[in-house]
Write a structure and sequence with these properties.
- With about 120 residues, the protein is mainly α.
- It has helices at about 1-5, 50-85, 90-115; strands spanning about 15-20, 40.
- The radius of gyration is 19 Å and the shape is flat.
Length: about 120
């Protein structure tokens, strides 16, 4: 949970489907954490030739595996809740302190960007 809150994509939903074109069967560190419970689809077609037919194939494959993906996400959510309930309050306070510091640093960074643009 803490790691997820430190990512730039913290306010975004996790992707349901991640498509990799060009025949490469790797993610190249692209959204590794966020796509841990996503449907990964690797196709041999290059991006410029990607068409609606390819998209339909991906959606059909996703529909076939949807129930398994939802079971995995529910299992992960249950295990996360069970580990959160065993955390001590001191650890929770340290996490909250770190997150507030991180948000303050981010606001300072944004303010510095605004100042440089003026």
């Amino acid at each position: 949970r803490l790691f997820s809150l430190c990512l730039d994509s913290q306010d975004c939903d996790v992707p349901d489907i991640v498509v990799r074109t060009s025949g490469e069967i790797r993610l190249s560190d692209f959204m590794l954490w966020q796509s841990s419970y996503s449907f990964l689809y690797f196709c041999d077609v290059l991006w410029p030739e990607f068409s609606v037919v390819h998209l339909y194939k991906i959606l059909i494959a996703y529909q076939r595996n949807h129930s398994q993906l939802m079971e995995m996400r529910q299992f992960a959510a249950k295990s996360e809740k069970s580990t959160e309930s065993t955390n001590c309050s001191d650890k929770q306070k340290r996490i909250e302190h770190f997150l507030s510091w991180k948000n303050e640093q981010y606001q300072l960074y944004l303010n510095s960007l605004i100042q440089t643009e003026k």
